[in-house]
From TrEMBL:
The keyword Transferase does not apply. Residues 4-68 form the DUF1899 domain. GO terms for molecular function: actin filament binding. Keywords: Repeat, WD repeat. Signal peptide: none annotated. WD repeats lie at residues 77-119. It comes from Anoplopoma fimbria (Sablefish). Pfam families: DUF1899, WD40. Belongs to the WD repeat coronin family. SMART domains: DUF1899, WD40. This is Coronin. GO terms for biological process: actin filament organization; cell migration.
Length: 148
């Protein structure tokens, strides 16, 4: 009685190649906040990631082509008083991003055409004093649009 222990597969001798360090993102302080969020958002121009920040919430936005080591002093988007929970780019304008925070506010930001060169602290629109903490930014914005 002969049994095959290993399934035969046409892919068992296929091996991948690791991506080179200069094609990866390195040294990004991703937020340690435990939340049901992706912690990042991407569009054809930019990559945005929620990062650890003291004194409130922040996230970084850098051009999609910028890979390698991200300097610790890279400018951030900061304006929330609580940790940022979710970020989402506008589907119609690549330079607009929205952020939702534990401080029960949603802020809409406009990223300069070439990316950030200095920290961005003033949002274009600030929606605050929402009834509950922002769980999912997309749902909250849709809820606000339906009220008005």
């Amino acid at each position: 009685m002969s049994r095959k222990v290993v399934r035969s597969s046409k892919f068992r001798h296929v091996f991948g190649q690791a991506v080179k360090a200069d094609q990866c993102y390195d040294d990004i302080r991703i937020s340690q906040m435990t939340w049901d969020s992706n912690f990042c958002s991407v569009n054809p121009k930019f990559v945005a990631m929620i990062v650890d920040a003291s004194g409130g919430g922040a996230f970084i936005v850098f051009p999609l082509g910028k890979t390698g080591r991200i300097d610790m002093s890279y400018p951030t988007v900061c304006g929330h008083t609580g940790p940022v929970l979710d970020i989402e780019f506008c589907p119609h304008n690549d330079n607009i991003i929205a952020s939702g925070s534990e401080d029960c506010s949603v802020m809409i930001w406009e990223i300069p055409e070439g990316g950030l060169t200095t920290p961005l602290t003033e949002p274009v629109v600030k929606l605050k004093d929402l009834n509950a903490a922002v769980e999912e930014l997309v749902k909250r914005v849709k809820e606000l649009e339906s009220k008005h």
